[in-house]
Design brief:
4 helices; four-stranded mixed sheet; 8% helix; mainly beta
């Protein structure tokens, strides 16, 4: 079988009309054409697409530049390309921060410590705290003084209604209703009468000073002791009261020593200690 292919020069191709499926070749350039319903088609153009290829005719290099970089890697189609990227260090950035700055690409460009000025306004209601305006005020909460105690001005009267001072002269110039004032030097108590201090009860105060009553428990003990009529509760000795010792009672008087003289018959000692002679019998002649 013989296939007829039209032949000619390249310059005549533009005037060539091929039937569908008919071939033509330009002898001076080697270009081949085929006729189709859409016209002549050049089927072997220079640089055309090959069905397969084991490698590129001209190898190319791959690399990355910009915020992320990667060194060049040559590619000719025979092996895979692996690009090892690097994120460059930013000067002055590094460490732990409670706040950071980022650019419009999301990169951290700086950092620092979080301060109160960085926080948005927060109300007491948002965190369940008590507003400062309610501290130490009516319908609020009590505050603390420098010693960690609730100031007397924020306490009800029945909690802080007794106040002590060194003496009457140390009382405040103007007192308060419902408060009891005590003068420690006399232990007397007073109340504020509106224009001056008024003693509470009588002027008699309890204590052990010249202007106070003696404590009742001590007075009771002293009275009970005074009623003891037997024994020797104080353990008093003859020497303590200048009396003769018990041993002296056992010594009989003689011409050479002082001792105890016992009255004989017809004699006795009265209640005043005097020797009485009731009868003298002169005897008989």
């Amino acid at each position: 079988m013989k296939i007829q292919i039209r032949r000619g020069l390249q310059e005549a191709v533009s005037r060539l009309v091929l039937d569908e499926g008919e071939l033509a070749v330009a002898l001076d350039t080697g270009n081949v054409y085929v006729g189709t319903t859409a016209g002549n088609v050049h089927i072997n153009p220079t640089g055309g697409t090959a069905d397969t290829a084991s490698k590129l005719k001209t190898p190319q290099n791959f690399s990355i530049t910009g915020d992320v970089t990667a060194p060049e890697v040559s590619f000719d189609g025979t092996t895979a390309v692996v690009l090892n990227t690097t994120l460059p260090n930013l000067p002055g950035v590094g460490g732990e921060y409670t706040k950071v700055q980022v650019n419009n690409k999301g990169q951290v460009t700086g950092g620092g410590k979080l301060g109160f000025s960085d926080l948005p306004p927060i109300s007491a209601d948002q965190v369940g705290a008590i507003p400062m305006t309610q501290k130490g005020t009516a319908d609020g909460v009590a505050s603390l003084d420098s010693s960690g105690k609730v100031p007397a001005s924020q306490l009800p009267g029945f909690v802080d209604d007794v106040r002590e001072f060194d003496n009457r002269e140390a009382f405040p110039g103007t007192g308060e209703d419902g408060v009891i004032y005590i003068a420690n030097d006399t232990n007397q108590t007073y109340r504020w009468g509106g224009s001056g201090y008024v003693p509470i009860g009588s002027d008699l105060a309890l204590g052990e000073t010249s202007s106070t009553a003696y404590p009742g428990d001590k007075g009771k003990a002293a009275y009970a002791h005074s009623q003891v009529k037997t024994g020797n509760p104080h353990g008093t000795t003859a020497t303590d009261v200048g009396a003769a010792t018990a041993a002296h009672m056992e010594i009989k008087a003689s011409g050479t020593q002082l001792g105890h003289i016992k009255p004989g018959t017809g004699m006795n000692v009265d209640e005043n200690g005097a020797l009485q002679i009731t009868a003298i019998d002169g005897g008989t002649f």
